Amino acid sequence: MNFSQAQFVSSYGKYSQIPKSDRTEIAFSGRSNVGKSSLINKLFNRKSLARVSSVPGKTVTVNFYSLENIYIVDLPGYGYAKVAKTEKLRWAGLIEGYLNADRELGLVFQLIDFRHPPTADDLMMINFLIDSGIPFVVILTKADKLKKTQREERLRLLQSELPCADQITIIPFSSETGEGVEEIRAIVEEIAADQ
Predict the structure, then answer these.
(1) Where in the sequence is the domain holding 49, given as residue range(s)?
(2) Which of 35, 80, 88, 137 would you call most buried, defined as having the most Cβ atoms within 10 angstroms of its Cβ?
(3) What is the pTM of this model?
């Protein structure tokens, strides 16, 4: 699979605008500023296919990228406090609408900042994915920001912080060093090969 051939397809600001699913989709979910856009750029080996910002809440739309026979879907970040309540409700509607719809959703990559315990929103999302039977993988972003002992401690604590942690595939990732990118690509290729 040639990841650098990925193309931006479209952005949708309302769930009602998203066309019906016509191929397998792999979604990226996580709180604002967790590093979804950076991960997508690293995955595709591109500098700025997905817009990256140091300001949380930049991805306010559902963004579709085509990669051979599948779509990569970048969901808006959740949990950013400094936006109007109406905007939060719109984001929630977009994310929930997308995840609750009858789409060909092959997998959700759920991103969590490795440096911190999962937020209440992260746990709500993981519980939703478990309850809905949606397959997912947890990606721990910003792995390069932790020293070896800090990483070991966070991984140990995650076993009790995450529901069903012993049954979840967990991948440490760094957009700086590229750690985890090959594992993520292998999962994407496996899903695409099943189509």
Answers:
(1) 3-193
(2) 35
(3) 0.91
* CA proximity to 188, closest of 171, 165, 163: 171
| pLDDT value for 56 | 47
Task: Count structural domains, the chain.
Answer: 1
For residue 60, the domain's CATH number is: 3.40.50.300
pLDDT digits (tens, 9 = 90+) for 54-81: 554 455 788 999 999 999 999 888 776 5
**Does residue 67 contact residue 3 with C-beta atoms inside 8 Å?**
yes
